[in-house]
């Protein structure tokens, strides 16, 4: 019996020794994997939700979905729909916070509707949401040269874009490999310098010198392609003030699938009904809404 048990122990030990290297193997390099998949005319789809956490009170604040199309260098186009996670009850509370201004109240109710943004090159076309109130009659799209990648909702979207090779390389410097991918931290300033997507999405909110940290966790599949990215950062890094953190959980699919995004050709205006051409900056007081 003792000899049999010893034999079983030796077999088990050998099996563990053989299995350990495979279990501990680092995930494949996502930079290499994304480079192989993305070429002009191909892209990737994503869905995401942004969650606000103030003193342990967590609420889903916004949801987005869309597709990005690759070009010869970087993202050539995108088609993204975003929506604030606001109910009728929430709107009543927001109106109490912002006052009894009927015009502002109407605008907030419009902002509770989905916004769709098509961006081709550096020109954005935005529809729905507040644009239903701001555009001239007979127009449904606002054209904005050098416009935001994700429209006015883009400021609350995923700040890290793994479809940008330069961003991925910067992200992985000093990152720690895990069993399912990578994890680490990056300052807003470093990401700002590396990512055209962030500079477009957040406009001029942060600076390249910002030391605010974004904690992130990237999951990759067997080929090394990103399948999920969770980033968390302080609200103050986004808005310049406020308490709490914003966490954006994004899933990716269809890497390398054929994508063809075209700019809308009808019902487009480059001016609002009042003649203005500058996009209104309406930053919602996140931490106050979570109280």
Give a short overview.
The protein is α+β, with helices and mostly antiparallel strands and 291 residues long. Helix content is 30%, strand content 33%. A hairpin with a 4-residue loop joins β2 and β3 (75-84).
Main features:
291 residues, twelve-stranded mixed sheet, 33% strand, disordered N terminus
Count of strand segments:
12
Would you tell me the overall average pLDDT? 85
Number of domains: 1
Uncertain runs are: 1-24, 287-291
**Beta content:** 25-35%
Structural class: alpha+beta
Tally of helical segments = 10
Helix share of residues? 25-40%
Task: Give the termini distance in whole angstroms.
Answer: 68 Å
How is the largest sheet built, in terms of strand order? 7-8-9-10-11-1-2-3-4-5-6-12
> What is the CA-atom radius of gyration, in angstroms?
23 Å
Order of helices and strands: HHEEEHHEEHEHEEHHEEHEEH
């Amino acid at each position: 019996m003792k000899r049999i048990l010893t034999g079983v122990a030796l077999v088990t030990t050998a099996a563990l020794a053989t299995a350990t290297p495979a279990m501990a193997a680092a995930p494949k390099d996502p930079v290499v994997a994304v480079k192989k998949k993305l070429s002009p005319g191909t892209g990737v789809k994503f869905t995401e939700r942004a969650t606000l956490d103030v003193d342990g009170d967590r609420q889903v604040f916004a949801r987005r979905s869309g597709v990005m199309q690759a070009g010869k260098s970087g993202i050539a186009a995108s088609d993204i729909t975003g929506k604030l996670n606001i109910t009728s009850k929430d709107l009543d509370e927001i109106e109490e916070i912002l006052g009894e201004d009927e015009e502002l109240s109407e605008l907030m109710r419009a902002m509770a509707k989905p916004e769709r943004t098509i961006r081709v090159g550096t020109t954005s076309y935005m529809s729905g949401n507040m644009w239903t109130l701001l555009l001239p009659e007979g127009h449904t799209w606002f054209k904005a040269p050098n416009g935001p990648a994700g429209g006015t909702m883009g400021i609350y979207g995923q700040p890290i874009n793994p479809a940008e090779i330069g961003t991925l390389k910067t992200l992985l410097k000093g990152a720690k490999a895990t069993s399912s991918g990578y994890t680490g931290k990056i300052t807003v300033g470093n990401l700002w310098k590396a990512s055209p997507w962030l500079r477009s999405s957040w406009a001029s909110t942060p600076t390249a010198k910002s030391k605010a940290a974004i904690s992130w966790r990237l999951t990759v599949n067997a080929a090394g392609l990103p399948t999920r990215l969770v980033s968390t950062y302080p609200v103050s890094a986004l808005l310049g003030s406020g308490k709490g953190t914003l966490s954006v959980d994004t899933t990716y699919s269809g890497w390398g699938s054929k994508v063809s995004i075209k700019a809308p050709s009808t019902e487009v205006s480059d001016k609002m009904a009042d003649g203005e051409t500058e996009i209104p900056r309406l930053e919602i007081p996140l931490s106050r809404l979570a109280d």
